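User: I'm putting together notes for a lab meeting next week and I want to include a structural view of one of the chains we've been expressing. I don't have a solved structure, so I'd like a prediction I can at least talk through. The sequence is below, exactly as it appears in our construct file.
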Amino acid sequence: MLNELPKDPVMLLSVINTKLRDHYSSLQELCEDLNLDQVELEKQLETIDYKYDKKQNQFL
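Assistant: Thanks for the context. Below is the predicted structure for the 60-residue chain, given as C-alpha cells.
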C-alpha cells in the first residue's frame, strides 16, 4: 500500500490525516488495515516536523 501513497511528505500527510479522520480510530488500525509500516510512516512525516497525536488521532 505504501507504494500507492504519495511520495511527497506534505501530500502524504494530507492523505493519512484524511484517512484517520474519516475511517480509522488510530494510527495502528490504519497501518494494520493498509499493511503499512507504522515506524516508517512516522519517520516520513517527521521529516516535515509532524508527529502523531494519539488524543486527536492526527499528525500535528
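A couple of points you could mention at the meeting. The beta strands are 52-53, 58-59. The radius of gyration is 10 Å.

User: Perfect, that's what I needed.
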